[in-house]
Amino acid sequence: MDLSGAAVLVAGARVTGRAILSALTPLGVRATLTDDSPSALTTFAQNGVAVIDAANAAEKIT
Fold it and tell me: Which residues lie closer than 8 Å to 62 by C-beta, 6 or more apart?
């Protein structure tokens, strides 16, 4: 299955979220990370990961 360009929301910036991002990135997926920790999101954003805070993510997907 070709996932290149697919948009995926990854919930959680800890161990599992990092593992999912690592698995999806080589597949060309457009991953956006959400977490309830602003500092975690800042760290990922500084490393080029698309991020969105949890409140805004919930509004966009419901």
Answer: none
Number of domains observed in the structure of the chain = 1
Query: In terms of residue numbers, what domain contains 17?
Result: 7-61
What's the token pair of residue 23?
A: 């698995």
Confidence of residue 43 (pLDDT cuts 50, 70, 90): very high
Instruction: Give a yes or no: residue 2 inside a domain.
Output: no
Q: Which residue has the tokens 């593992």?
A: 19
For every residue of 44-57, which 3-state class applies, written as one string?
HHHCCCEEEEHHHH
CA distance 11 to 58: 10
Q: For the whole prediction, is pTM greater than 0.70?
A: yes
| Class of residue 14 by CB neighbours under 10 A (exposed 0-12, middle 13-18, buried 19+) | exposed
